[in-house]
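This part of the workshop introduces the protein records we will be handling. Getting from the letters to the tokens is the skill we practise here. An example says more than a description, so a record of this kind follows:
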Amino acid sequence: TAGEAPQGHELRAPSCHLLSTSFLDEVATAGFATSAKVYDIEERVIREKGKGIICPRFGTCGSSYVDAVAGAENAGLASHMLSYTWGYEVGDIVDSLAAHCVTTESDPKFTYVWICALCINQWRVQELKRSGQPVPFDEFRDAFGQRVRGIGSVLALME
């Protein structure tokens, strides 16, 4: 059905509901305020969520954040892609997406937003960094281009 995306699907994304509830709870539990930047929480919140979970994309230990959550109210087929930076505050990102749902009268449980930090396997990114194998720009560009085309809607978040 519409909105379904199994673990490992390249357009699987967290719901706005998940972000404003469980995700923010995980941020707080890890000792961060909502003013923490995405890069601050990458290891202890984002990667921690997929720790010990076999990645459905690569078959290795450590999954993306979104592949570590279950339930249609928490993750599904992306309806939007978020354009943002890792230097933005987590609370600003979540508040902006909640406001988007209110403004567009969208159900936060079924509004799925593809966010690179949560949808790309950060374990794999770290593995590539450690091995000195940066992702070639063309591969990076193609992957994001495919996702933009596949999702069809980009939300631009600007401070």
About this structure: The chain has a mean pLDDT of 93. The CA atoms of residues 92 and 128 lie 30 Å apart. The radius of gyration is 15 Å. Residues 90-104 form the longest helix (15 residues).
